[in-house]
Write a structure and sequence with these properties.
The protein is of the alpha/beta class and 231 residues long. It has a single domain, classed as Alpha/Beta hydrolase fold, catalytic domain (Rossmann fold), CATH 3.40.50. The protein contains 6 helices and 8 strands. It has helices at residues 40-51, 76-88, 91-106, 122-133, 174-184, 212-229; strands spanning 3-9, 12-19, 26-32, 55-59, 111-120, 138-142, 161-166, 190-195. It has an 8-stranded mixed β-sheet, with helices on both faces. β3, α1 and β4 (55-59) form a beta-alpha-beta unit. α3 (91-106) packs across α4 (122-133). The chain is globular, with a radius of gyration of 16 Å.
């Protein structure tokens, strides 16, 4: 069972779900939500990271719109609601809230001081921006949306970044996917993994495009990446 903590910023306070490992001290990982809020899927990711030996924290990044959003991808009504949140979301302030989360968990008594981040969908884009704009030690992004719009920030990458790219991502046109790969494939800090035939959210358990084999492969790659870069 996880716990809830409160993170305070100059703009206000927001909650975050925390899952702790068995160890007294461990490297931390910020779990960056999809467009459905801090829901069961995101809490599950945090729980799995804790079971793997990391101190995991998943902040409520939609708090400025509506605190405590927790919906699923299982109905048309929830999808419409999720996209309304996505359209209202301020990316710049979201990254600022992630930076505050990094500072918060880095100062936690259970943290070694090393902090990574992993994000999915909207969170995949935010993971890239976390890598370019914050003090995170290592970041992982899954099928980030609109990432091609921020490739100008690639030169600011100073810490390791891993991206999982679905080759048939319905939210990332082929030309955008190719642009992302071309811009990042030779960067010394970047590791790219592409997944042939996979659509957006292939790692979301219970989702329409979930693929257990590639989801498990991506998860193993992510775990190894964090173990290597957050030690």
């Amino acid at each position: 069972m996880g716990e809830t903590t409160t993170i305070t910023t100059p703009d206000g306070s927001f909650s975050a779900y925390v899952a702790r490992p068995v160890a007294d001290k461990a490297p931390a990982v910020v779990v960056i939500q999809e467009i459905f809020g801090v829901n069961a899927v995101m809490r599950g990711v945090a729980d799995e990271l804790a079971a793997a030996g990391f101190l995991a924290i998943c902040p409520d990044l939609f708090w400025r719109i509506e605190p405590g959003i927790d919906i699923t991808d299982q109905s048309e009504a929830e999808w419409k609601l999720a996209f309304s949140y996505f359209n209202a979301f301020d990316v710049e302030k979201g990254v600022s809230d992630i930076a505050a989360t990094i500072d918060h968990i880095r100062a936690d008594a259970g943290s070694t001081g090393k902090v990574g981040a992993v994000g999915f969908c909207l969170g995949g884009l935010l993971a890239f921006l976390t890598a370019t704009r914050t003090s995170a030690d290592a970041c992982v992004g899954y099928y980030g949306v609109n990432l091609q719009q921020y490739l100008g920030e690639t030169e600011k990458l100073a810490h390791p970044l891993m991206l999982h790219i679905a080759e048939q991502d319905g939210f990332t046109p082929p030309e955008a996917r190719d642009m992302i790969i071309a811009a990042l494939k030779n960067h010394p800090q970047v590791t790219l993994h592409t997944y042939p035939g996979r659509d957006h959210a292939f790692a979301r358990k219970g989702g329409e495009h979930y693929d257990a084999k590639d989801a498990n492969l991506a998860e193993a790659r992510t775990a190894a990446f964090f173990k290597a870069n957050l030690a």
